[in-house]
Sequence to fold (168 residues):
Amino acid sequence: MNDEHEFNIRQIQRALRILHKNGEDITIVYEDGIFGEETERAIIAFQAQNGISPNGIVDYDTWVLLMEKANDYIRKNAEPFPIFPYVSDEESSVLPEEEGKAIWFLQAMLIAIAEKYSGIDGVVLNGINDEATRNAIRYIHKCGEGEICSGALTQKTWNSVARLFNAI
Fold:
């Protein structure tokens, strides 16, 4: 270690483990907080593979590159962020044959639901509250609420479809 810069040994070891787990040719290092021979060997290998003088010392340049590479793998392997589409009251009421932004989201959810459940057929992404979309809306209302509906997109319909979508 370099006295000029105090770097957290566990962070170094964690970064080296991330690189190892993602296929980098670096010896596995355990996160024990001790800068021992294993950690030094892994640093030397990392430095040699990345054009840094392989001296086993974690200086500023080694630290920055090590953290950048580890963070790249973390970002690459991270779970995608979920979205939670919400439409306002004025956007959520779409009558038959009308177009609306909310219908795009609704149709996407209906298509995903149709992959798991039968009874929802022919829905396509077109942004129009067409016959197939209305039939799917009616089907979900009939199954979930036990009531007949016009096939219009309302806040109640949105909530029913969103609950079913989130369940799958």
